[in-house]
Write a structure and sequence with these properties.
By secondary structure, the chain is of the alpha+beta class. It has one domain: Histidine kinase-like ATPase, C-terminal domain (Heat Shock Protein 90). It contains 4 helices and 5 strands, in the order E-H-H-E-E-H-E-E-H. It has a 5-stranded antiparallel beta sheet, covered by helices on one side. Strand 4 and strand 5 (120-128) form a beta hairpin. Helix 1 (15-30) runs antiparallel to helix 2 and helix 2 (34-54) packs antiparallel against helix 3 (100-107). The protein starts with a strand and ends with a helix. This is Histidine kinase/HSP90-like ATPase domain-containing protein. Pfam families: HATPase_c_2 (PF13581). It comes from Planobispora rosea. Residues 10-126 form the Histidine kinase/HSP90-like ATPase domain.
């Protein structure tokens, strides 16, 4: 099973619910467990919110989501001036803002940050998918495994 959702969105807070709802609808249709879907929604929201807040020199950004076998890979790409993730400070857990990186790191199975010199940043988030019993995604995953044998 492989599926891709890719959107170029305006750097505006109103764009975040659009991609969240599209991705959640696809994951729900496949029967991905609710907790996994909620984790993915929160990770995605934090990554998009960081672009909206910090990529000031860019008018838009791209979200590319790939569902491949039992993994969800999300890439949030902006074309701002770039962000040095190595120097990012962690906010205290009780802070009202600045906890996005910490939240993404806590929820993602794998996370990568890439700064493209003068061409923005890429946040790549990966999450293993788990399915409800008898879910369509689970049977599609099983058919993938049979084909590989």
């Amino acid at each position: 099973m492989e599926a891709t959702i890719a959107l170029r969105l305006p750097r505006d807070a109103a764009s975040v619910p659009v991609i969240r709802q599209m991705l959640d609808s696809a994951l729900d249709a496949l029967g991905v467990q609710r907790q996994i879907r909620e984790d993915i929604q929160l990770m995605l929201s934090e990554a998009c919110s960081n672009v909206i807040k910090h990529a000031a020199s860019s008018d838009d950004y791209t979200v590319r989501t790939e569902l491949c076998h039992d993994r969800c890979v999300i890439k949030v790409v902006d074309e701002g001036k770039g962000f040095d993730f190595t120097g990012a400070r962690q906010a205290p857990p009780n802070a009202e803002s600045g906890r996005g990186l910490m939240i993404m790191e806590a929820l993602a199975d794998n996370i990568r940050f890439d700064k493209r010199e003068e061409k923005g940043s890429i946040v790549c988030l990966e999450k293993e998918l788990r399915f409800d019993e008898d879910a369509p995604g689970e049977s599609l995953l099983l058919s993938d495994e049979l084909e590989l044998r």
